[in-house]
Structure formats: C-alpha cells, structure tokens
C-alpha cells in the first residue's frame, strides 16, 4: 500500500477515536501496520468496516504470535482488505501473555466479520487467546481434551494421548 493511502486511513481512525488508541505506527514496514490499545479493537474494527469511505469488508486472516515467556506478550494481527477500494490494512494488538490457567483475553470481532469465527478459534486452539463474545469458542484443529497450546514457545508436548505415544 502506498504511504498516502495508509496515512489517509490512519487520519480517519485518529479523527474518530483520537490518538490515544494508537500505540505504534509503522508505515515503513513491507506491510504497514498500526498497533492499537486492545480495549479499542472492536470499536476500531467496526469503524473500518462501517465507514463508507473505507469499507474494509474482508478479514483475510488473524495471526497470533507468541513473543515468548521472556518478553511476556502475545501479538494478534488482523489483516484486512477493502475489496471495492482495493486497499489493505493491518491492525495489531499486544496482549499480556497470561498463563495456561489465566489465558489472555480480547473481544471477538466475529460480529464485524463472520470469518473471524474460524480465525479466532484457531488462535485460541494453537496460541491460547480467549476471544470474549465469540459465539462458539472451542478447539478447531486439536481434540477438545488436548492439553496446552502448541504454538506457545514454552509448550510441552504430551508424552501420550489416550494411550497413543505422541513424542517420537
């Protein structure tokens, strides 16, 4: 995306919500992005979808990244597209890593984009992020009784699962 398009979208967000919702702006990245406050995510996403001059009608994917126990954070990246305006935009949030007993939580955007239901289930299953207000948050790739979240950097693989050797 060219810088003017990125700046235009950023200006509309800051006009609507103020600069306090934005924690980081990286317009120089190969895929420019903004990082926003996690508690602003749903409102910003709703705005990006409902604003007639932006109309980000498609959630391409959600990427969840574990920065490791040392850093203590998880990142959630929302890759958006406006099909009619041929633009893309990335919104990032950073969450406290939490623990297996106290998973990090962020509000679901499945009420904005229906496709988020599947993407959020995958992030929950593999990285351990809880999406509040999700209509059906359960594992999507692993069995319901699987222990842990395999894409966490401190994940310890089970020795066996229902008597079947897991580690080889």
How would you explain this protein's 3D organization?
It contains 3 helices and 9 strands, in the order αββαββββαβββ. It has a single domain (3-165), classed as Beta Polymerase, domain 2 (2-Layer Sandwich). The mean pLDDT is 95. 22% of the residues lie in helices and 29% in strands. The chain is an alpha/beta fold.
State the gist of this model.
The protein is 22% helix and 29% strand.
Helix and strand topology:
Layout: H1 3-17, E1 22-26, E2 33-36, H2 41-50, E3 58-66, E4 73-82, E5 87-96, E6 105-107, H3 116-127, E7 130-132, E8 160-161, E9 164-165
Parallel strand pairs: 2-5, 6-7
Antiparallel strand pairs: 1-2, 3-4, 4-5, 8-9
Features:
single chain; 168 residues; alpha/beta; Beta Polymerase, domain 2; 5-stranded mixed β-sheet; two-stranded parallel sheet; 3 helices; 9 strands; 22% helix; elongated
Shape: elongated
The top-level CATH class is Alpha Beta
Give the second-level CATH assignment, the architecture: 2-Layer Sandwich
Structural class: alpha/beta
CATH superfamily: NADH:ubiquinone oxidoreductase Nqo5 subunit
Note the total helix count: 3
> Radius of gyration over alpha carbons?
17 Å
Distance between the termini: 45 Å
Number of E-type strands: 9
Q: Give the low-pLDDT segments.
A: none
State the order of secondary-structure elements, H for helix, E for strand: HEEHEEEEHEEE
Q: Report the β-strand fraction as a percent range.
A: 25-35%
Give the % helix. 10-25%
Strand order of the largest sheet: 1-2-5-4-3
Count of discrete domains:
1
Sheet having the most strands: 5 strands, mixed
The averaged pLDDT comes out at: 95
CATH fold name: Beta Polymerase, domain 2
């Amino acid at each position: 995306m060219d810088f003017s398009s990125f700046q235009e979208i950023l200006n509309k967000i800051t006009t609507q919500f103020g600069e306090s919702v934005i924690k980081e702006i990286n317009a120089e990245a190969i895929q420019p992005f903004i990082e926003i406050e996690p508690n602003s995510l749903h409102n910003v996403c709703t705005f990006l979808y409902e604003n007639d001059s932006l109309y980000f009608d498609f959630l391409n994917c959600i990427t969840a990244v574990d920065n490791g126990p040392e850093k203590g954070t998880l990142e959630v990246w929302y890759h958006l597209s406006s099909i009619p305006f041929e633009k893309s935009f990335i919104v990032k949030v950073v969450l406290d890593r939490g623990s297996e007993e106290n998973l990090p939580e962020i509000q679901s955007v499945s009420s904005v984009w229906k496709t988020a239901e599947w993407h959020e289930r995958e992030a929950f299953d593999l990285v351990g992020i809880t999406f509040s207000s999700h209509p059906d948050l359960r594992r999507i790739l692993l069995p319901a009784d699987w222990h842990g979240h395999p894409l966490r950097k401190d994940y310890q693989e089970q020795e066996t699962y229902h008597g079947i050797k897991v580690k080889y």
